[in-house]
Design brief:
This protein is an alpha/beta fold. The protein has two domains: 78 residues, Methylated DNA-protein cysteine methyltransferase domain (Double Stranded RNA Binding Domain, 2-Layer Sandwich), CATH 3.30.160; 79 residues, Arc Repressor Mutant, subunit A (Orthogonal Bundle), CATH 1.10.10. A four-stranded mixed beta sheet has the order 3-2-1-4. Strands 5-6 form a two-stranded parallel sheet. A hairpin with a 3-residue loop joins β2 and β3. The longest helix has 13 residues. The protein is globular and about 60 Å long. It starts with a helix and ends in a 6-residue tail after the last helix.
Length: 183
């Protein structure tokens, strides 16, 4: 027995309407690759460049009831960003991180579109001068890249450093925003 696409969509919509879903996920094609996105009952909770283990990771943090279903607001805002029609995001976020990463990610969200900043400067603004490496770890574990723009953070000499989506994705995001890149 196979389920028609219409019936499948009706079941998914009913599960969402009845509150039977802890977190939903979807895939968004983008100029920097396929993005896995997650949305909890509180808002956008994950963007990942990696598909493997994504559903399990969502279930571990947000609850076992995980369902693939469209997340139209996220898709629309990401599409607008990649089309250069959006420079900031208006999505509610569900950040379930410890206090220091929360402080760093809050400051990261303030780094303007089209600019770059350094790990050290971000550490200072988060109240932890000298913690550039710890900030690097937070950037590496950023649960919502692009929306929380860790791609805008560069080394103290302006060099591009690690990025979950790869350095080419980081470069492409910065170029999309018109940021000045090193040599």
């Amino acid at each position: 027995m196979s389920v028609t696409p219409d019936l499948d969509a009706a079941f998914r919509a009913a599960a969402l309407a009845e509150g039977l879903v802890d977190v939903r996920h979807d895939i968004v094609d983008s100029p920097v690759g396929r993005l896995q996105i997650g949305w909890s009952t509180r808002g956008l909770c994950r963007i990942s460049y990696t598909e493997e283990g994504f559903e399990e990771a969502l279930a571990d943090v947000f609850g076992a009831r995980v369902l693939r279903a469209p997340i139209d607001d996220v898709r629309r805002e990401l599409d607008e960003y990649f089309e250069r029609r959006r420079t900031s995001f208006d999505l509610p976020l569900d950040l379930r991180v410890a206090p220091f990463p929360a402080d760093v990610l809050r400051e990261l969200a303030l780094v303007p579109y089209g600019t770059t900043d350094t790990y050290g400067a971000l550490a200072r603004r988060a109240g932890r001068a000298g913690a550039a490496r710890a900030v690097g770890t937070v950037m590496n574990r950023n649960p919502i890249p692009i929306v929380l723009p860790c791609h805008r953070i560069v080394g103290s000499n302006g060099s591009l450093t690690g990025y979950a989506g790869g350095l080419e994705a980081k470069r492409r995001l910065l170029e999309l925003e018109g940021a000045t890149l090193p040599g």
